[in-house]
C-alpha cells in the first residue's frame, strides 16, 4: 500500500460509550416528557374543541371575523401546529453525548438503534411485559364500564319527567334564575328582534350548518341595551311560527360573545339561550345521541387497549418461553 493510500485511509468511528446510570435516567425522562406532551396535548386539544376554548376557539373567532364562517377542521390546525413545534425543534437539534435528555426526547420519535443501551436482563423484561399487559387489560375492561355509566347518565331523566307539561317562564324569571334553569321551558312576555339576528355559519367535515341567534327582549327594551335572552334555531327554521319553547342553557363561549358584539348584537356576558324546538308543550324523552356516542368511543378505546393487552401478553409468554429454554439448556 502506498503512502498516499495510508494517508487517505478511512478509519471507522469509535464505538459508542456505554451509558451511565444518570444518562439512562435522563434519556428516559426525555422520552417520557415527549410522550406526555403529545398525548396530553392531543387530549387537551379535543377538550378545547368540546368546550370551545384555547387555540380552537381562537381559530374559530379569526375565521368568523375574516372569512364569515368557520370550519371544525381548520380550527384544529393551530393547536396541531403548537404541538408540532417541539418536534421540529428536536429534529433540528443534533445528538450529543452531553445531551441525554434531548436524545431521549428524540428517541420518542426517531429511535437511534446505533446508540449504546444498557443490557436489560430477561427477568426485568418479563416484569415489564407483565406489568404493561395488566395495565392494558385493566384499561380495556374499564372503557366499556365508563361508556355504560356515561350512556346511562345521558339517558337518565332529569328533574323534569318526560311527558310532563313544560314550565312557563317570563323573561325576567329566566334572566334571574341563574344556574337553576330548567332543561326545557316555554318563554313568555318576550319579543324576538329578527333585525338583530346573528348568523353563525360553520362546517363539520363536508356538512355546512347555519345557526341563527335572535335576541328576545322584554317590554321597555331599547336599542343598545344589553340582551340577556337569545333564541337559537337553524336558518331553515328562522322566524317560523310557533311557541317560544325549547331547551334552555346559560352562557356562550367567550369568542362567540365577542363575535356577536362585533356584529352589532349587545349580548350580555352570561345570556340565557333557548334552543328552539317543537315540543308541543311537553318535556321530551332523553336524547339517545349521547348514549350512542359514548358507546362508540368507549368500544373503540376498549378494542384498542384490548389489542395492546393481547400484544403485550404474547410478548410476555414468548419471553417466559425463552427463559425456560435457556434454563433447560444450562441444566443440560
Structure summary:
The protein has helices at residues 3-7, 21-51, 54-67, 72-92, 100-107, 122-155, 171-176, 254-262, 289-331, and strands at residues 70-71, 168-170, 184-188, 191-192, 198-204, 207-217, 227-234, 245-250, 267-276. The protein is of the alpha/beta class.
- Spans of at least 5 consecutive residues whose pLDDT stays below 50 are 1-21
- What's the story with the biggest beta sheet? 9 strands, mixed
Rg measurement, Å: 30 Å
Helix content: 40-55%
Description:
The protein has 3 domains: 16-119, no CATH class; 134-149 and 288-332, no CATH class; 168-276. It is built from 9 helices and 9 strands. It has helices at 3-7, 21-51, 54-67, 72-92, 100-107, 122-155, 171-176, 254-262, 289-331; strands spanning 70-71, 168-170, 184-188, 191-192, 198-204, 207-217, 227-234, 245-250, 267-276. Strands 1, 2, 3, 4, 5, 6, 7, 8 and 9 form a 9-stranded mixed β-sheet that branches. α2 (21-51) runs antiparallel to α4, α2 crosses α5 and α6 (122-155) packs antiparallel against α9 (289-331).
Amino acid at each position: 500500500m502506498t503512502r498516499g493510500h495510508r494517508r487517505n485511509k478511512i478509519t471507522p468511528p469509535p464505538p459508542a460509550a456505554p451509558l451511565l446510570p444518570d444518562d439512562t435516567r435522563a434519556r428516559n425522562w426525555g422520552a417520557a416528557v415527549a410522550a406526555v406532551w403529545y398525548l396530553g396535548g392531543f387530549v387537551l386539544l379535543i377538550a378545547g374543541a368540546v368546550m370551545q376554548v384555547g387555540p380552537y376557539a381562537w381559530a374559530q373567532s379569526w375565521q368568523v371575523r375574516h372569512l364569515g364562517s368557520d370550519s371544525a377542521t381548520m380550527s384544529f390546525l393551530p393547536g396541531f401546529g403548537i404541538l408540532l413545534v417541539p418536534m421540529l425543534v428536536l429534529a433540528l437539534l443534533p445528538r450529543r453525548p452531553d445531551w441525554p435528555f434531548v436524545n431521549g426526547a428524540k428517541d420518542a420519535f426517531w429511535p437511534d438503534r446505533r446508540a449504546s443501551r444498557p443490557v436489560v436482563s430477561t427477568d426485568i423484561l418479563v416484569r415489564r411485559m407483565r406489568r404493561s399487559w395488566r395495565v392494558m387489560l385493566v384499561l380495556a375492561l374499564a372503557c366499556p364500564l365508563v361508556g355504560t355509566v356515561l350512556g346511562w347518565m345521558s339517558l337518565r331523566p332529569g328533574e323534569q319527567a318526560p311527558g310532563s307539561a313544560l314550565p312557563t317562564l317570563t323573561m325576567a324569571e329566566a334572566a334571574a334564575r341563574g344556574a337553576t334553569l330548567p332543561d326545557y321551558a316555554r318563554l313568555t312576555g318576550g319579543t324576538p328582534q329578527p333585525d338583530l339576528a346573528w348568523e353563525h355559519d360553520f362546517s363539520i367535515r363536508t356538512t355546512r350548518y347555519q345557526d341563527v341567534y335572535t335576541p328576545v327582549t322584554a317590554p321597555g327594551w331599547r336599542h343598545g341595551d344589553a340582551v340577556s335572552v337569545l333564541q337559537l334555531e337553524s336558518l331553515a327554521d328562522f322566524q317560523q311560527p310557533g311557541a317560544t319553547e325549547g331547551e334552555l342553557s346559560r352562557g356562550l363561549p367567550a369568542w362567540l360573545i365577542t363575535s356577536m358584539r362585533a356584529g352589532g348584537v349587545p349580548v350580555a356576558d352570561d345570556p340565557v339561550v333557548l334552543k328552539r324546538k317543537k315540543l308541543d308543550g311537553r318535556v321530551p324523552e332523553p336524547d339517545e345521541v349521547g348514549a350512542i356516542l359514548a358507546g362508540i368511543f368507549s368500544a373503540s378505546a376498549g378494542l384498542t387497549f384490548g389489542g395492546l393487552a393481547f400484544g403485550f401478553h404474547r410478548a410476555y409468554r414468548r419471553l417466559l418461553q425463552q427463559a425456560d429454554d435457556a434454563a433447560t439448556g444450562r441444566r443440560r
